[in-house]
Input
Amino acid sequence: MYKLIPLETEQLQEIDSHHHLHPFTDSKVLHEVGSRIITRADGIYIWDNDGNRIIDGMAGLWCVNIGYGREELAEAASRQMRELPYYNTFFQTSHPPVIELSKRLSTITPRNFNHVFLTNSGSEANDTVIRMVRLYWATVGKPGRSTIISRHNSYHGSTIGAASLGGMAYMHAQGGLPIPGIEHIRQPYWYQESNGMDPDEFGLAAAGALEEKILEIGEDKVAAFIAEPIQGAGGVIVPPDSYWPEISRICKKYEILFVADEVICGFGRTGQWFGTDFYDLDPDLMVIAKGLSSGYIPIAGAVLSDAVASVLIDDGGEFAHGFTYSGHPVACAVANENIRILEEEKIVERVRESTGPYFQRRLRELEDHPLVGEVRGVGLIAGIELVEDKRTRKLFDAELNIGIKCRNISTRRGLVMRAIGDSMVLSPPLITTRSQIDDIIRIAFETLDETVSVLKS
Ligand SMILES: *Cc1c(COP(=O)(O)O)cnc(C)c1O
Output
């Protein structure tokens, strides 16, 4: 048995780079720089193998909503592992944790959402959605409605189906994506793509692209439109106020299903339980993952409105789809405990009434910084876009890798920020306090200043 602890960081890095292929990583580059080894975490802090304490301003990958180190989740997992570590939910069987989770989800999701199909990841949940919406239309006698419309620069996951739904050109470039039957329209990225339009005007134009695409494809061929309420991995793109009402109008007019990918926005990130609640959307399906278990264990799902569920249940027949670990008892037990904590400790309310507005207000102070073009966000999610020229919004030469440089400085100063292009992204745990927000803002300022001096040298 290979005993890793207590190995020195360099030894760990070497073994890592010889045997482990990382997601979304250039392995050759990683081999040169070495991976950062994280060994433990508590609250909003992570520690690396050299003992450095770092504020996790990204809550892992937008997921550790209740923060690290909650004993109750470890307890729930170990209790469940002892009692019933695994049983499947195929073949007309079920178990208490999955029943409890299904019921809990029906109470926290919008009133007309009462059924969930569970998966292990957001990607699988989105693949599930592709099959569900097509089965829905086939069941109501319109099998020709099979095309799904999504948006450029959206992220819906990394399986072949989910990556096709997503609008990341650099992902599509590998492996011949997207698969047929998926079309993309422009994103509502006001700051860089509005060409002088005011936000409302631009929001209508960006939403109008959906109507144009529906008419181009033919409304009798369109199954659904899928979108994140706020694009996360695309750089925290917050749509103008006029965008969502217009999208809703278009979806209703052409009777196409609207799928809200709530993987990041769900479970309190915006200060409401779901992005759907924040923007007052009326989706037909919702995709959930990440914050569902606060990242403590993999679990995700597709949640169905009553209208969609009743068609599939009453007339859809057998849904020939599912995963060995759909509704895994240990994952469900952990998710149940996570939701209990979010509810009982009023964590979502705290983000809505206190820390969310405070975070956004303090972040706007960064807009005075010479590097910062725009700060955007709601609740505890934000993007800080770095530009060379604030007036023309001109971006830095991509070769300069300003985002990556800024991220590395930030980590060294004790704050994890993510660089998406030259947008610095924050999505801290929902338990972050006001004084911890002050720490985040202070380090962000120092980081921007140091980035300026690195640029000059
Ligand atoms: C992370 C993410 C996914 C994919 O979830 P995985 O669990 O990584 O498969 C899907 N949609 C959105 C909006 C995400 O942020």
